[in-house]
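To whoever is on call:

I kicked off a structure prediction for a single chain this morning and the downstream step that reads the tokens threw a length-mismatch warning. I double-checked the sequence; it's 380 residues and nothing unusual in it as far as I can see. Pasting both halves so you can look.
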Amino acid sequence: MFVRVGGSALTRHEARALAHLERYGPTDRLSRMLRPEPVLEREWRRRFGDAEFDVIVDCSRYPSTFAWMATLNSRARLVVWQHTDASADLRNRAKWRLAGAGAPPITEAALAAVYRAADVVVAPGPELLAGDRASFPGVRTFASAASPVDAGRVRRLLAEAEAWRDTWQSRDDLIVADVVVVVDEGGAVRTLQLDDAPPSPESGEPYRRFVTMGSLSPEKNQANLVTAFGDFAREHPNARLFVIGAGPAARELRQLAARLGLAGRVCFTGYLRNPFTVLGRCDCFVLPSEYEGFSLAVCEARLAGLAIVLAGFASAPSVSVPDGQLVTGFTADELHAGLRAYADGRVRSEYAFDADAHNAAALAQWEAIVGRAGAQSARG
């Protein structure tokens, strides 16, 4: 595994050439004029020397510079792994505007050029495979593979959360959690006590705790979930929503919750060192996303034994199990109907999810993809 951290020693011209290649691809007129090939060759040799590879898997969120280095300097077969619905992500103007970029770091044409240069592009599920084939014509080979779930880590963190609770929690109406505070390049951890008291015990209703987890970003659709929860809380006041994660939409979401009078009922936790300190206390996991890759968060919520409500994003079938979720639409009204379905007992938490069997199948898919690529490299 090769993780690139930091920068490279480049002249101003070389930096411009790489930046233009990364954003617009090698067929752009200015990319050809700037000639990035010499710096790609030098950077490859600086990193790998005379090493030879059979298969290279590029796991970059948006493959570009490294992929072009690999195709220029290696006879290895190039496998590009997608994180999400790439076409939808690049067209998500709200996301890039909130992130302060204004535009994505790579154009769709440049990404299509990477995909065409690769030997295999791996979609995170068969549902996205069909969309990829329509969005990126001319790509040599598309395949799909599920992501393995680190079930051992999840079980360890669940056990740690229980031990943490026994050691540090002084009252049943509090959740003690370590929140990761990111500062510049490093990070700090501070311990918080999150309110877990039933907000309206006088209602006589059971205390229902909903939770969602992920980056706070427009495509995750948390704004509609917060709005839906506001409607639900007016009908069922003894409820709380925990939002685990951080991101560019955090401020807008907090303001929305305040406008709806939910400041005490919607808890924004930030990044948690161990999210299962909260997940392990909740009842129903809700993922309202407009698009996803293979959602590991859903699998992790299943390992915590939660009922599952999903928006009907394209890859939702990849993380679905028989009788193991309710699939809704994306609007606040549709998500509200999903929360009501849980309250009415129509979303089950008793379903079968075999993480070990899932991992065996996912690894078999990856071994087949990499094995075929390696065999083709040997023949080449």
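Update from on-call: the warning came from a stale cache, not from the record. Cleared it. Sanity check on the structure: Residues 355-379 form the longest helix (25 residues).
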